[in-house]
Amino acid sequence: PNPTPNPTPNPTPNPTPNPTKRPTKPPQAALPPSSAGNIPAPSHELMAKVGSILVSASTGISDDVLLSIDLTTMEESRPTRLYQYGGFVNALGVLSKGDMGSTYFYLGDDNSIGGANYGLANVALFLSQASVETVRFDVCDEISWEKDVFGRYAIANSCGQGRFAGVSMVSYQDSNPCAIHEAFMACPVDTTMMAVAETHGIFAGAPPPLECFPSTPAERFTGAWDPTLSCIKDGCDSYDGQRLGNVDPSSVPTANSVSALVDGAFHVCVPPFYCSMHFLTL
Description:
- The protein is α+β, with helices and mostly antiparallel strands.
- The protein contains six helices and seven strands.
- The protein has helices at 44-56, 58-64, 85-96, 116-133, 172-175, 272-277, and strands spanning 67-70, 75-79, 153-154, 195-196, 211-212, 224-226, 246-248.
- It has a three-stranded antiparallel beta sheet with strand order 3-6-7, with no helix packed on it. It has a two-stranded antiparallel ribbon with strand order 1-2. A two-stranded antiparallel ribbon has the order 4-5.
- It starts with 43 loop residues before the first helix and ends in a 5-residue tail after the last helix.
- 25% of the residues are buried.
C-alpha cells in the first residue's frame, strides 16, 4: 500500500509590521489676520527679531527702495527727500508698540517656526505700496485725481474721492465714520479752518493741491477745475510750474463730488496705515 502522506502544516502568518509613523511637522505660522481690528500685539522678542533683520537691511532699503524720480529725466535715480530709513523704522515702532491705540502693524506669528517671515513679507508689501504711491514722487499727501464726466476735477475733491458713484447728499464724514479702533484719532470739524495741501499732479493742466476753506453766503459752491482752460490771465500761479488749467467759471458741483462745499474738509479720520505710509515724518 502507498504510504500516508504527511499532513500539510498550516503556514505561519507573517507578523503584522507596525505602521511607520509620519514625522511630525513643525507648527506652521498662522495666516495674517484679515482686518486691522484683530491684529494681536507682537511680543518684544518678535519685534526684536524683525527689527534686527531690518537694521541689517538698512543700506539696501535706503539705496534701492527709498528712491524718487528726477522729473527732468524721469529716472528713478536720487534718494527721496521726504522719506528716510530712520523715519520708516520709527513709524513701524509706533504701530508695533500700540502707540496708535489698539491697532498694530502685523509682524508675524509668535507661536510658530519662521513666523517672523510673515511679518517681513508684510513689511515688504508695505514698502512697495509706499514706494509706488508716495516715495518715488516725493509727495506726502493726496492729489486731486477724480474727474467728472466732462473731464473736470471738482474743487470739492478734498472732501473725498472715489468712494461714491452718483449724487450723495450725505457729508463725507457722516457716510464714512471712523472704525471703533480708530475713532480716537477723529477731531471736531472746524468749518472756519483754511488749509492747502502740498501735492499736485505733474501733467499739464493738473488741478492745484486739495484745499479747504469756509464758504460764504455769496459763494456756496466750489465749482470744478478744467485742465484745458488757459491760466495766462490769472498769471498761472495756482502752483509752481503751472502752464495750463483754471477753474471753470460756469461749473457747478459735479455728480461724483461728495460735497459742493469744502468747509472743514481735512477734518476726517486718518487711518494709521495712511499715517505710517508717510513714515510719520516729524
